[in-house]
Design goal:
With 101 residues, the chain is mainly alpha-helical. The chain folds into two domains: 2-52, no CATH class; 61-100. The protein is built from five helices and no strands. The chain has helices at 2-14, 18-23, 36-52, 67-89, 93-100. The protein is flat and about 75 Å long.
Length: 101
């Protein structure tokens, strides 16, 4: 029974990984029947297209500077963790009466 459970557990772990393992050998462009020259030609076309058609700027100024997002998140997380720390150090009203007796 233990070996059957182990085999089922191994099968459930390995089976979802099979598409990722087989995708590694599918070729550079993803198709298994493309040659290296075709992949290089496609890559050159992609680079040329991105050179002549650059990605547009982000729609809002907020996403142009990542610090405008990171700093408020750090402040909020720090404030929450500070409040949790203070609350954990301060005894509740019910605990004070029990410790004095």
């Amino acid at each position: 029974m233990k070996t059957l459970f182990s085999l089922i557990l191994v099968a459930l772990t390995i089976i979802p990984l099979l598409p990722f393992v087989s995708a590694q050998y599918a070729g550079i462009g993803g198709g298994g029947n493309q040659t290296l020259e075709e992949d290089l030609k496609l890559a050159r076309e992609k680079v040329r297209a991105s050179y002549y058609n650059p990605a547009p700027t982000p729609p809002t100024y907020l996403f142009q500077n990542p610090l405008l997002v990171i700093i408020p998140v750090i402040i909020a997380c720090g404030g929450i963790s500070f409040l949790i720390f203070i609350k954990s150090r301060r005894p509740s009203s019910g605990d004070e009466n029990e410790t004095r007796k």
